[in-house]
Every structure is written in structure tokens, then in C-alpha cells.
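Input.
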Amino acid sequence: MSDLSRRRFLGVTTAGLAAGALNRNLPGSAWDSENSTPTPAAKGFLAIASANGIGTVAKARKLMMEQNMRPVSAAVQGVALVEADPNDISVGYGGLPNELGVVQLDSACMDGPTHNAGSVGAIEDIMHPAQVAELVMDRTDHINLVGAGARQFALDYGFQAENLLTERTRKIWLKWRSQRSNDDRLWPLQDTNPADPALADEPRPWGTIHCSALNDQADLGCTTTTSGLAFKIPGRIGDSPLIGCGLYCDNGVGSAGATGRGEAAIMSGGSWLVVERMRGGDTPEEACLYALRRVAEQSERAARWQPALWKDGAPGFGLTFYALRKDGLFGSASMLGKPGSRKFAVANADGVRLETCAIAFPTN
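Output.
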């Protein structure tokens, strides 16, 4: 990374890292180096999610409190609100389709206490892929099911096949198809959401939802679900169904997830990295910023073959990480944006609200 880029990046300072290392070695501290895990969280229920998850976090927390639902199941039920919402064109019903006009969904979930996970990729006709992923986790010895196999698995467990393409998203797809160029497959996902020539200079929609949850026993769980990159090549899966990329959970440490450019989260193992940084003593926000810096360094190298990945000393795409530590501390950071412009959802004893993400590369 260039000197200019390093100065722009608002990451973890050397002093902060040193302080974290010192704290980890204090006997009896939350980060005792002998076990490298935090002390149990204070009694309480907490859920975080991407900004489109206000209803999700409220529902997840309520389910944990009132029904004693395990965190992973509460998160899965929470994101079901967004999966069923036709107005959110990035997830589930009404999600934007692939090149052929077919809605293919990706999702995964991970359970902290059992360190087990399940996922589905490129599944069609099933509105709630996160619930199917939970069944893969609970009812099989597998982690990943994809395509026709994932669809049949869902049908075997009573899910109903239905058309997920709404009239609104069909019209968006038709507009894109009539304007697409031959090199559209190299069009990068960008957080600044610039005008897309294939949509007559309107922004290309995109998005995902992640949710991490913590109960009063300091157990964790998480899920990520998406319809993926709009107009993707059929069969493409992003980071959302890949454990360690779009989400990761370690019950001794914390939980993390990602939204944004899936390929960048995959190449960095981003969510796993965030959890490991928390294991080492980072706060959730520090861990998210560290992972974004790693992605930025990788993207600068990758720009040799795809120049759009690096522009004006910063990544040319958007990515956000979300993190929830076992002791109840939480945070989030986005790659690009104006300071204060990026938000994430939180529900805890202080209420349900949006909080501000840190920004790795601030824009004007």
C-alpha cells in the first residue's frame, strides 16, 4: 500500500496494538493469554446486523429473551423478515436475478456452542435460504449444499417452491439486459454505487444482510443471507455461504460477518480474520478495520489485472464487516464512505437503533 494510502487509512495504531498485547497478558483479565478467550459476558441479550436489519435485531433479541431460542436460530428467524420483504431487492423474495433472470440465493449460519455450520449456495425457488442452511447444519454431516441439491433438500423438509422474481425486479433485469455491454462480467461491486451504464446511468442495486446474536449465557450464533451480486453469472456464489468469509463464529471469542464485495471477503477470509483479531485483543471495531486494511492491500496487488479494484489510492469497491465479542462489545467498519454515513443495526438493553460504522478510507 502506498504511503498516501496508509495515511488515509484509519486503522489500529501501534500503540493500540501494544496496549492490547499488554492487556492480554494480565492474569485474570478478560484476555488471559493462557486461554486466549474472553471472560463470559454480563447477563443480557444482544443482536447486531447490517443497516437493513432493524427489524431483524429486534426480533432476534425478543426470541432469545422470551422463548429462550438459541442465538443462531434467533438470528435466522430475524433475517427471515428481510428474506420475505419484496422491497429489499438484495435478499430473498424480490432479490435481483442472475444474467438469465433467475433468482439464486446464498446463505449460511453458524452455531457458537457446537461450532457447527450449514450453508446453501445458488439455491432457487426457496424464499428462506437461511432456514435451509440451519437444517443443513442440524440434520446432516455436511456444511455446504448447492444448486439443485440444495433445492431438493429444502423440498424434502417441507419448504414450498415459489417464484421469487417480482414484477419490479423483472423490470430492472430487463432494463439491464437491454443495455448490457460485452465486458459487463468485469463490472465491480462498489460501495459508492456509481451510475451503471447498463441501467441507463442509474445505480446498480446490491446488498446482503448479516446478523450476529449473543444470549445471557454468553453463547453466540450468526447468519448471512443474500441474493448475491445483481445479474451475476449463473452458478456464482459469493462470500455469504462460505464459512470464514461471509460469516464466522467462535463461542470462546465472538462472531463476525460481511456485506459488500463477496470476492474480497472470500480472498481475505475476512470474517474469520475479524474473529481471530478479537481473539488477539482487538476491539470489534479495531478487528473490522484491520480486516479491511488486509483487503485493501490485497486489492492493490490485484489491480494489476483488474484496475477497477484500486482507484485514487483506495479500493474501488465497498465492503463492511460487523463484529460482536463474547463480552458484549460490538462494532463495525466499512471500506468507503463519508464519515458517519455508514450504519449498522443494534438491539440490546438500551434499545433498537442504528449506530455508526468506522470508515477505513473516508470519502468526501
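Residues 10-42, 188-193 have pLDDT under 50 and may be disordered.
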